[in-house]
């Protein structure tokens, strides 16, 4: 599935080229010049202005989902240690509690702002798993509130484990600098005066704190996020879920209010959340206030579909169709699935999602459907959906070729019109780590 | 995201325990048929169910644990029964999967985005189903082995600082509300895997983790012996766990002192 990245081996060839001064200088300037590397040494650590500021910061931290990346399973919130896997190895997110030695306890507000905007701190240039390109959009007002909130957490002494990376990715200063020169193009986003305030608020949340593009955009070489693949849909590194495109066409079936509801509750009559999106809703988006949920829905429904997305949808010749007869798929569907999803594939209200006319089922990548059939799933619990329905796992009850057949069936049936899924794809997904 | 190779964690201990099969136990006479797993008929309505029927929502769980949580065995793997276990115990286990204290990837996967309120309701629902207390296996143990197992279960082993199992799990080993599960009605391999899990860290409970201390104090040979003996015991059909306060635990267990009423829900802890 890793058709995108050039490997580091090739980067090794690129490095001498980068040394060619002129190109080097230009690229260095393009990533922000020297400014990002001047981490402020002076500064202050102002006390929180008032409870309202701390509360605002707590809300922003929810929407930025700092806690999910900066906490291990069952660990003390914000104390760091969660590991991010990629083809280059594993990177750990640090401790954000105000412990002076292992956390942000002796950081100044200036350093915090700087790290969030430029992705460079006393640690050095930070790996782009940390969504600093998104956080760069945040206003001072919001960054200050975040810092004030983090300062109120109980300090926890917890040093993040050492990263385990292959060379040259392991060479923080060199590798991150090279990556920045190749791919990092700082952009600040001013409000677009021709658009309503709600739209601007939505874009601020989506591109900034919400960092939706970290999952929903296509990836270029070395995990970069090329602008032309903005929200074009992408596979999530290390987790194997596919985040669908978010744009005017893919979201056509939702009206704005429904979409806003889904972001907070995790269910709708068009589908319910699972995989990484279930996590995002459980830990973050369910806490959106109504106005912000509507703003996000308003904005994402106006995104223009990217050209590369259309191109990709056409390029699906790579699948070998060892296609088991679709009659077999229909039979399996009737025996195992129709009781919930219906003979007509239309699901049942908020309980069971529709499969007919569902772009996620018909999407270019079948990984999500295959995974749900293999291992089952349940939408996250939220205030709007406190008793989620669940989808049973079929691994062990259906053979791999039967799973390929039934998923191929739902991809083709009811006018979904998507190509079948191969046995190999099912076999590969069976081995995916589950948690 | 951190992968939890729970089975691999467990493997060395399992192998150790299997190898340590006591010469005195004549393993092999496993009963199947008449007194094997007792599964209520699929459409049998459980006696007074004080909680709303959650069967539709819990369709995923039914695949492994049975429609009423009666448990199942598939391809040599045992999916524990949940029916009739104390609600507080069930809640603690689901939280443990979610929060990284009990590693079994397919359970973790299903629990990870469920908050305490919902897990509490699930716990109550399964707790209200008819308890499953009949033995699932019987392996003939010779008199000496039986005597050793009974001593450990009912008197403990003071030399190893090991309290009697019955001191906490109840005289009839049917468990005690709200946090102590029954030891009857479980197969040998599951019992061994749980005790092994406490030794390797694949399973842990809130500190002080009394069961981890106990598992580490029992000799591996005795783990197999006690598990084999327990798997052959039954209580009365449907016999419930003893009421809360029936036992005075001889050592502190964090899972018993922690707030255990699933009705008292806390906010989702991500």
From TrEMBL, chain A:
**List of residues binding heme c 3:** 337, 340-341
Q: Where in the cell is it found?
A: Cell membrane
The protein's required cofactors: heme c
Which residues participate in heme c 2 binding?
212, 215-216
This protein's UniProt keywords:
Cell membrane, Electron transport, Heme, Iron, Membrane, Metal-binding, Repeat, Signal, Transport
Any binding details for the cofactor? Answer: Binds 3 heme c groups covalently per subunit.
Chief location bin = membrane
Query: Which positions are annotated as binding heme c 1?
Result: 66, 69-70
Which residue ranges does the record assign to the Cytochrome c domain?
A: 52-154, 197-304, 324-414
**What is the superkingdom listed in this entry's lineage?**
Bacteria
Q: Name one GO molecular function term.
A: electron transfer activity
| Keyword Electron transport in annotation | yes
Q: Name one GO cellular component term.
A: plasma membrane
Question: Tell me, what's a Pfam family for it?
Answer: Cytochrom_C
**Coiled coil region boundaries:** none
User: Which PANTHER family has this protein been placed in?
Assistant: ALCOHOL DEHYDROGENASE CYTOCHROME C SUBUNIT (PTHR35008:SF8), BLL4482 PROTEIN-RELATED (PTHR35008)
What is this protein's name?
Answer: Cytochrome c
What is the species of this protein?
Pseudofulvimonas gallinarii
UniProtKB/TrEMBL annotation, chain B:
PROSITE patterns to which the protein is assigned, alphabetical: CYTC
So which residues are the signal peptide here? Answer: 1-25
Q: Which UniProt keywords apply?
A: Heme, Iron, Metal-binding, Signal
What are the residue boundaries of the Cytochrome c domain, all occurrences included? 144-234
Record-level Gene Ontology MF annotations: electron transfer activity; heme binding; metal ion binding
Q: What is this protein called?
A: Cytochrome c553
Gene3D superfamilies found in the cross-reference section = Cytochrome c-like domain
Annotated region Disordered: the residues are 234-270
**Residue ranges the record marks as coiled coil:** none
What InterPro entries does the annotation carry? Cyt_c-like_dom (IPR009056), Cyt_c-like_dom_sf (IPR036909), Cytochrome_c_Oxidase_Subunit (IPR050597)
